[in-house]
Amino acid sequence: MSDNEGFYGVTQNRNIRRVRLGDNEFDTLYGNSVYFLEGHHDMLGYEAVNAHQRIHHRKHSGPQINGDTDSYWLDTLYVCDLCFKYTRDEALLNSHLSVCKHNYRFPGKTMYKDDFIIKKVSGYRHTILCQNLCLFAKLFLDSKSVYFSIENFDFYVVLGESNGRRVPMGFFSKELLSWDENNLACILIFPPFQRKRLGHLLIEFSYELSRFEGKVSGPEFPLSAFGKIGYLKYWSKVICRELLYGRFKECQSITLQKLSKFTCIRAKDLISTLDYMGSWFTTSDIDESKSPDQYPLVISRSVLKQWVKGESTKCEKLIQEDSLVLY
Description:
Elements: E1 16-21, E2 24-27, H1 51-60, E3 74-79, E4 86-87, H2 90-97, E5 109-113, E6 117-122, H3 127-138, E7 153-162, E8 165-175, E9 186-189, H4 198-213, H5 225-245, H6 256-263, H7 267-277, E10 280-281, E11 298-299, H8 301-311
Parallel strand pairs: 1-3
Antiparallel strand pairs: 1-2, 3-4, 5-6, 6-7, 7-8, 8-9, 10-11
Helix pairs in contact: 4-5, 5-7, 5-8
């Protein structure tokens, strides 16, 4: 099994069969060779640091790759659900969980506090934790390629209750100096905690950050297939909320520029969403002297209402504004 050229850590096939994250065990979606010592598919990278660990591993490790490219390099990776340190040894994980320093306080600055908490964790200050998050994310994201050079990123981690403990359930990263002024670089909700609308919560929170910063922004492209679906759903709800029930419900005319500035969503993302919903039309009297973001939008509110009904969705915000701690 060889790495795909140009994408560090990417493998042609899944090389780790399953992950145990705290009390949850589930299959991986993609491979990640970065967990392993380069050139040694039967050894995790950290194990090479200590010669005793290497000897112990060779004596006691389970079945590993045997030259067959369809085989897994590792059957189960055991990962701490607080600090995301990892091992092949279940007993080591179990002993670590009781003494992990993040049991007492997960690092970072609290930015949102409600049923779920969102903390901003600096990649510069908490490098090991953020590197481990990135390594773990690659097992579930096809396009993830940044693992170690994370000092210029902040990580927004959502925490919630699971089996009586408050644990990370997902995160998104944001580049500190983004030439395109993106408000999100990478997003992942961990498999055991999906279908809790946490992806929607984090996306909405990323736009609250943009609003606080006074910017029109959006995610880094290209989006993954799941990411595109998530964003289209979010953008659609925002458009329906503001045009049907919110700021512009009485407006007979509005420019793309006004809608973009109010929602903090880029004009191109609004256009692609309106097109996805089949709710906008062009007219023959567009003033060609104006820039595209100033074109009058011809939007069918009846189509928007049908979309809301057909999707059986609610347009209310998930974020509780009085729970935001932005400063």
